[in-house]
Amino acid sequence: MIAPNPFIAAQEGNIYDLRVWQEKNKYNVVGLNITDKEHNSAPLIYTAARFGRVEMVKYLVSEGVNLNVVQAHGSSALHAAAYYGHLEIVKLLVEAKIDVNIVNRYGTTARDEASDLVQNGEQWKQIVSYLSS
Description:
By secondary structure, the protein is mainly alpha-helical. It has a single domain, classed as Ankyrin repeat-containing domain (Serine Threonine Protein Phosphatase 5, Tetratricopeptide repeat). Helix content is 50%, strand content 3%. A two-stranded antiparallel ribbon has the order 1-2. Helix 1 packs parallel to helix 3 (44-50) and helix 3 (44-50) packs parallel to helix 5 (77-83). It is elongated.
């Protein structure tokens, strides 16, 4: 069964289902920049980053999505990856040239998000170190 919408596909990391949605709805790169109005207007790239879906993030980057699009609170995919401790995605997004200086509604960058959570584990320390270099 195909995911009921592209956001579920992104959340689950199901590239096949996302491609089916692209073909069915004739999504091009602009179509992949859609946001989920039910969940703080989270873009697909944010959703994939939040849930740690490395291959989905790679796919969306390869499709040319806008990396710097933010959700309703001004947080980018980099904020999500940093907050949830997904170091590999942080590196992938930075290498893809995401803006590391985006400040969300709460006045924090992705690095700030990770800094607030270093007590939670080594990956947050590594994220802070990576984003500080």
